């Protein structure tokens, strides 16, 4: 399988710090702000981001993990059942500024489903989207990130692979690969 490196560990570290500084600029002392990592991969990114944000800002911003499996528009259209992940939110989002965090923005379907799932925890004041990789020109829904690490042009035959050292990979990295044909 041919892989092309898009981001290495050092570049990802720089992006995470940039994200933190952007959040600090846009959210006054994080009053009324929460972070939600979209399960499963956005929660991994959030786990990387949260300690850096606390280190830079000195503020522990409330965060949780949101699973949108049962809100997906393709939930009942698959040949195999989707496996749900844990939703772990110990606060209401009612009236809060919510930042949804995911690793890759592709078609926009996961984000749309996440917004539906999030409503079960209240109506937010504002919702923003943060992604490590924005696969531009591929949307099915008119969804754009407020914060992105890198924008890439990809073909439908390609896949964006995000690897994390704390998930057993050699190092943090983002690759573009060809999709495995079945």
Automatic annotation (TrEMBL):
What keywords does the record list, in alphabetical order?
Glycosyltransferase, Transferase
Q: Does the keyword Transferase apply?
A: yes
Q: Does the keyword Membrane apply?
A: no
Phosphoribosyltransferase domain: which residues? 6-156
A Gene Ontology molecular-function term? glycosyltransferase activity
Organism of provenance: Algoriphagus zhangzhouensis
Q: Which residues form the signal peptide?
A: none
List, alphabetically, the InterPro entries matched: PRTase-like, PRTase_dom, PyrR_bifunctional
What is the protein named?
A: Pyrimidine operon attenuation protein / uracil phosphoribosyltransferase
